Amino acid sequence: MRKIGLVGWRGMVGSVLRKRMLEEKDFELIEPFFFTTSQAGQTSPVVADEVYTLLDAYDLKALTDMDVIITCQGSEYTNDIHSKLRNFGWKGYWIDAASALRMNDQSVIVLDPVNLSLIQESLATGIRDFIGGNCTVSLMLMGLGGLFKANLVEWATAMTYQAASGAGAKNMLELIHQMGAISSSVGTQLDSPEFGILDIDETVTQCLRSAEFPVDSWGFPLAGSILPWIGDAKENGQSGEEWKNEAETNKILGNIESAVSLDGLCVRIGAMRCHSQALTIKLRKDIAITDIENLIDESNSWSTIVPNEKDATLEGLTPAAVAGSLTVPVGRIRRMNIGRRYISAFTAGDQLLWGAAEPLRRMLRIVLDYLD
Ligand code: HSE
What we know:
7-stranded parallel sheet; 7-stranded mixed sheet; 38% helix; 12 helices; globular; 14 strands; alpha/beta; binds L-homoserine
């Protein structure tokens, strides 16, 4: 059995990864080793009926004994360890959730329902670094990859509605605290007829602006508000999250000479773990909406079409409906008034599954098959 090192398995993405590996019985195919940055020598939680002694995630010798390392530890760890391992002569496969190595020439961004042939060609040419994509990009391509693969997209804008999970577990908790603070601030006013909605609204606004409102993680209120900037700032005015859309999409698709133009505004909203996005797409040619729907529906086993009808949309095309599911629904598909080659679409997907853990888990399977 191949030796697989897991790093960052205790965090939120790592926990989702372990859960999915258990569901898909991946542990039966591998000899797992659990690494830790802080608790070497202690024992792991029970994983597939076993407990393991935790190994030091900075021990290069122990790491180089692995055939594959999967890390959800974050970019700081990757930046620290990856080049040391390679300089040490390690020839194993590095599968990483962090963004640090994504745009390296020697890395492939993995999303196998969309780019399996690129992954397989890269394995054959000796590439050994396989990196999970940005969640918004992966979820857009899981939903709408059929249009990109058919070379129908001349350009697109993706306006995002990103969940708290993308910022981490602490931020998700703080979102709930913020919701609780708002609810507490209005207290019995909600049920007291003498308080009208404008009185209640004023109380909420005061609460959002008060020094006591919990903002340690977000910096600002997210509950009862939105945050229209995600990531760092680029010189051209884009946020870091916005920059990734075009760069990573074209890298995933292997577009070397014919990059698709993509841009949009990325916005944090008070959803828990599902990123949504509204797209405007300029098609290269005028094709029927049913053909567009078929291309999307048939491009992979997880993309599904939600009819552009009110009830179906509100029932199936929301973070509340999609959380915890691998299905990536796409709806609101219609020709826009702007012109025949312009269509709209809306998609929602679980940020922790296809947006983070699932492409890594599947990449492990692909490497195991390749090594057999
Ligand atoms: N950068 C993403 C977000 C998460 O903040 O939602 C990771 O891809």
